[in-house]
Design a protein that fits this description.
With 228 residues, this protein is of the alpha+beta class. It has helices at residues 32-41, 44-57, 68-75, 80-87, 97-114, 148-155, 160-172, 180-187, 192-200, 208-224, and strands at residues 13-29, 129-145. The chain has two domains: 18-133, no CATH class; 141-224, no CATH class. The protein has a two-stranded antiparallel sheet with strand order 1-2. The longest helix has 18 residues, at 97-114. The two termini are 40 Å apart. Mean pLDDT is 89; it is low at 1-8.
């Protein structure tokens, strides 16, 4: 009789990174009705781009990412109140692009219903809103971790693009309930408390550099408390 040894399940965390390509959709808006109609129709990659691209491009500056829709409403249509309402949408509360899109649509629709005069405002020809979409290419890196110490070591050296992918894009754009780090820590390393700490962080309030430091700090703290 021949016995086969069952292959041990690989519980290591593989780090990925991403490259992105900006593409003009050819769609544009000059007033609030056109903007609203196109927000409903454009691909999710366009909604994602216009709510996240600042985080990708300005890693060491203000952590508050401007929402392109809110910025345009405020600065091109001079509708400060609506601009503030759209800007105040708490992106971290939404787990899918679909739900984020729906909240943006609802916010604008509710404002139009209460303030129909907003429809007569038009942007000047040099302030037309052009919809852009982001095409992502997800690539594996050479880094993988199978322990907290290994995970910490890689966190210190991995690219900001990799951290961005696992903390932002994997959760929202790929329709996951939580970020990749928390999911792995909670399910593979059986570290539910550490996973919860990372999940409870609001990554939108950090620069990418500060987000890396925060992640390192919480993992270091857990290791000092006796977990290797």
């Amino acid at each position: 009789m021949i016995f086969f040894r069952k292959k041990r399940e690989d519980k290591s965390f593989r780090f990925y990174t991403r490259l992105h390509l900006r593409v003009l959709t050819g769609l544009k808006a000059s007033n609030i009705d056109e903007l609203l109609s196109l927000i409903k129709e454009v691909p999710g990659s366009s909604i994602y781009y216009h709510t996240h691209h600042f985080l990708q491009q300005h890693r060491q500056l203000s952590p508050e990412p401007p929402n392109d829709f809110a910025y345009w409403i405020t600065n091109a249509l001079n509708e400060d109140v609506l601009g503030e309402k759209v800007a105040s949408i708490d992106t971290i509360s939404y787990h899918t692009i679909r739900s984020l899109r729906n909240e943006i649509v609802k916010t604008i629709e509710d404002y139009i219903a209460a303030n129909p005069s907003v429809k007569i405002r038009f942007a000047s020809s040099d302030k037309i809103f052009h919809f852009i979409k982001s095409i992502s290419f997800i690539l594996p890196t050479r880094y993988s971790a199978d322990s907290l110490r290994g995970f910490l070591r890689i966190l210190r050296n991995i690219s900001a693009d990799s951290i961005y992918f696992h903390m932002f894009e994997a959760r929202l754009r790929l329709d996951k309930e939580t970020n990749d780090f928390s999911f792995w820590l909670g399910t593979s390393l059986m570290e539910p408390e550490l996973a919860k700490k990372i999940t409870s962080m609001d990554p939108y309030t950090y620069t990418m550099d500060d987000l890396r430091k925060k992640l390192i700090n919480v993992v270091e703290e857990r290791i000092k408390n006796g977990k290797s």
